[in-house]
Specification:
alpha+beta; single chain; 26% strand; 5-stranded antiparallel sheet; 5-stranded parallel sheet
Length: 813
């Protein structure tokens, strides 16, 4: 739609462009996406944009260079630029971004609502600018092209007819002038002159008056107004003819001087307005930040002092009819708000003069939310100072923004407190005791201050004696997710007590969720256990598969019965499958937060869970703790976690060798020494700099070395194993900043071999042990992937592995 304002998105990464489109989709605008600075410059030559969202890091011309060129062009120098970056977050880069003319510098991960609000402001400004430009163009064209205006008046001075020129001169249509008294067309101070002129004309004379005629925009046009009688004949006057001549040409010199003066005044006012907008934006950014309440107030006070240039500031908040909370900050004090105190609501000077007696100049502004005063914002100076009206206006705006931010933070804390209490009350207080079985559960919320989600678990004894265990995950967070979870749990308990099987339970739960308003979707796994036989009957609704570890320590995933999440389709059916929980076996149910890590294959999470469960002790509580220790150590885990474990009485047999594929025969390093007795199809040697990027560089080198040779499955397996070995070499191999990790890789028709060497003394090779210092899971993964592997510890440490290729598919892309 051509009338919609356009937004230019500039980023060399397609996924970032998709994310920006998703954030801005609710706004009424057209989005134009380009992948480089050069394409952005071309797009700006072809059409006008309300705002440009510009990535900093791009190949070729980076964001700063692109911004400089945009601001250097006359056509585009006023286009607002918002930098969006995840890398260049240092102060010097932010300073350079603003120096390049950017109006904002947004660092990822950004809050979608905040970015959308910022873009919406510029869309609104663009719309207003376009409207103003159109109005000005119409008026200017009307004024420039207007010939002499004429109107026919009746003897009472009312306009009977006006020509187009007069309407154009006044910026209205000729029809709008009809039936209006001519006096209403002139400035109020000239109305008496028109009345006098009409009286002269009525008496038979003519009148020339220089009058001011305001146009539709309110501009008074100096005009020569000539009134005369038009006679129909026989000396009888029939009408008064008014001729209006624009005198602006005659006064061009004076108008130009006045215009220059107005422009100078407007420029000063615009600069003052811009500075005020920047100051308010600085405070608004703090008010919109997602931080704890005390930190929010501290940041608001700090920015208010910075913007107004004062020595101290305080927020006085009315908590109740009896208590008032006072935060005070002093410029130059580390940590911002260095005083926080509660006083009685009628605390006198403590409330009315919270800044103290040392202040020589002070101002305050009420903090209003929906017309109600929640407190006041005070600022003061230790030295004499005259606060200007602009200072007071800025303080009023700062108080308005602070009130919004503080009330928002209060509501946020209140909502999460209510939802957390709701969720805690909805989870079972204790698990039922079933002879011969032990059950335990754990729940952890992700992130500080966000302890509310839709994860839940439950256990129910059905009338026939079967034990029903359930784990679910409602999409979303907050009160709605917790409330939906409670409704589903209550419904499931009611259906379970009616004796329904897992599949039948899920079908009824799906119908129940479809009936809930704005309920979204939920994943659930339901397992029914017969205590007499250990038989398991289970069904899943889009949930990760439970893990079953048998008496001998062999793992299996209960993934046969699959179904769509609850709420996905109206009439879903859910298949059931069976398994057996023998004595000494362990059943693990969980939510995806236990195994899912952003940017990592889900298979890695399953491998960690499997290894941790196999290595865990059999006692139920230490077993749960060991599973969590072996799976939650990853720093990128950001989701809620629910774990429900059922253990059948009996001793589990331990596997004799935790690393059955490890070779303990000593030997040389054939790839390093060039002695590998195989016909090599492809080989490579790569030196890796120590640090976090080492494993990523190794994976890219593998992709290059094995492209077109290894199948996709082989390449995925080798990537996983190499990542573990490189990380071990960096973390445990004594590699410092000057040392290198060396990787050799070679492929034949029948085999792949990789050697990872470092100059250090190596590390202890031991089975996974979540109870002690977590570790060993990486080598467990290597052992499961490789056909054989081993360690050489002469002249440093080399860990190698080989993967037989018999029976694999052809090379993948």
């Amino acid at each position: 739609m051509p009338d919609l304002p356009a937004v230019l998105l500039v980023d060399d990464r397609p996924e970032n462009l998709v994310a920006l489109r998703a954030v801005l989709e609710p706004l009424r605008c057209r989005m134009v996406a380009v992948a480089s600075g050069e394409e952005a410059l071309k797009a700006l030559l072809q059409e006008d944009f309300a705002v440009v969202l510009l990535d900093v890091q791009m190949p070729g011309m980076d964001g700063f260079e692109t911004a400089d060129l945009i601001k250097g062009r006359e056509r585009t120098r006023t286009v607002p630029i918002i930098f969006v970056t995840a890398i260049n977050t240092e102060r010097r880069h932010v300073f350079r971004g603003y120096s390049a003319g950017a109006v904002d510098y947004v660092v990822k991960p950004y809050e979608p609502g905040v970015l959308r609000s910022k873009v919406a402001v510029f869309l609104e400004l663009d719309a207003k600018a376009r409207a103003a430009a159109r109005s000005e163009a119409l008026l200017r064209a009307a004024f420039d092209a207007a010939p002499i205006g004429m109107a026919r008046l009746d003897l009472d001075g009312r306009i009977a007819e006006a020509n187009l020129a007069l309407g154009a001169l006044l910026g209205v249509s000729a029809r709008e002038l009809a039936d209006r008294p001519f006096e209403t067309l002139v400035a109020p101070q000239d109305a008496a002159a028109v009345t006098r002129a009409r009286r002269i004309v009525r008496d038979g004379g003519e009148s020339h008056e220089e009058l001011g005629l305001p146009d539709a925009a309110g501009e008074v046009i100096p005009c020569d107004v000539h009134l005369s009688l038009a006679r129909a004949g026989a000396g009888a006057p029939e009408a008064v003819v008014a001729q209006v001549v624009d005198l602006r040409e005659r006064r061009r010199a004076e108008e130009e001087r006045a215009q220059r003066m107005r422009e100078r005044v407007a420029r000063v006012e615009a600069e003052r307005t811009t500075e005020r907008l920047r100051a308010i934006q600085h405070i608004s950014d703090a008010a919109l930040g997602h931080v704890a309440f005390d930190d929010l107030v501290r940041e608001l006070l700090s920015r208010t002092m910075e913007v107004l240039g004062v020595d101290t500031a305080a927020v006085v908040l009315h908590e109740s009819d009896e208590q008032t909370l006072i935060f005070q900050a002093v410029a130059g004090v580390e940590g911002g708000a260095n005083t926080q105190r509660r006083v009685p609501a009628d605390g006198g000077a403590a409330v009315t003069r919270p800044l103290g007696d040392a202040i020589t100049a002070a101002r305050q502004a009420p903090m209003l939310v929906d017309g109600q005063q929640i407190g006041a914002l005070h600022v003061g100076s230790l030295f004499p100072r005259a606060f200007t009206p602009d200072d007071q206006a800025l303080l009023d705006l700062a108080a308005e923004r602070a009130a919004i931010g503080i009330e928002r933070a209060r509501l946020f804390q209140r909502e999460h407190g209510i939802a957390e209490e709701l969720q805690r009350s909805l989870l079972p207080a204790r698990l039922p005791e079933v002879p011969g079985f032990a059950t335990a559960a754990r729940y952890f919320a992700a992130g500080a201050g966000t302890q509310v989600g839709g994860d839940w678990y439950d256990t129910v004894l059905q009338p026939d004696g079967r034990l029903l265990v359930v784990v679910g995950d409602v999409a979303g967070r907050g009160i709605r997710a917790a409330a939906t979870m409670g409704q589903l749990r209550s419904a499931l308990r009611a259906y379970a007590l009616d004796g329904h099987s897992p599949g039948s339970l899920l079908e009824r739960l799906n119908a129940f969720q479809i009936g809930l308003r704005n309920s979204g979707m939920t994943t659930v796994v339901v397992v029914s256990i017969d205590p007499a036989t250990g038989e398991l009957l289970y069904a899943k609704a889009g949930h990760p598969p439970p893990l079953l570890v048998d008496t001998a320590g062999n793992p299996s995933w209960l993934d046969d019965a699959r179904g769509v999440p609850l709420g996905a389709v109206d009439h879903a059916t859910y298949a059931e499958a069976t398994a057996t929980l023998d004595p000494g076996s362990t059943l693990v149910l969980y939510t995806d937060g236990l195994v899912e890590v952003r940017g990592e294959s889900l298979d890695r999470g399953f491998e960690r869970l499997q290894a941790a469960t196999i290595a865990a002790p059999q006692e139920i509580d230490p077993l749960c703790d060991a599973i969590l220790a072996g799976t939650l150590a990853h720093p990128a885990a950001r989701d809620d976690v629910t774990l429900l474990v059922v253990s059948a009485a009996g001793r589990r047999e331990r596997a004799g060798d935790p690393f059955p594929h490890r070779s303990r025969e000593a030997g040389a390093r054939p790839l390093h020494n060039g002695t590998w007795a195989h016909a090599v199809t492809r080989s490579a040697r790569v030196e890796l700099v120590s640090g976090r990027e080492a494993s990523a560089i190794a994976r890219r080198a593998l992709d290059d070395a094995l492209a077109g040779v290894a199948s996709r499955r082989e390449l995925d397996d080798v990537r996983i194993a190499v990542a573990e070995l490189v990380n071990n070499a960096v973390v445990h191999g004594g590699v410092d900043g000057s040392d290198r990790v060396v990787m050799h890789v070679a492929a034949t028709d029948d085999m792949l071999r990789v050697e990872v060497s470092n100059p250090g003394a190596g590390f202890e090779i031991r089975p996974p042990s979540p109870r002690e210092e977590p570790g060993g899971f990486g080598l467990t993964i290597v052992d499961r992937i490789a056909t054989r592997w081993g360690v050489e510890d002469d002249a440093g440490t080399c860990v190698w592995f080989e993967l037989d290729r018999a029976g694999v598919e052809g090379p993948g892309p």
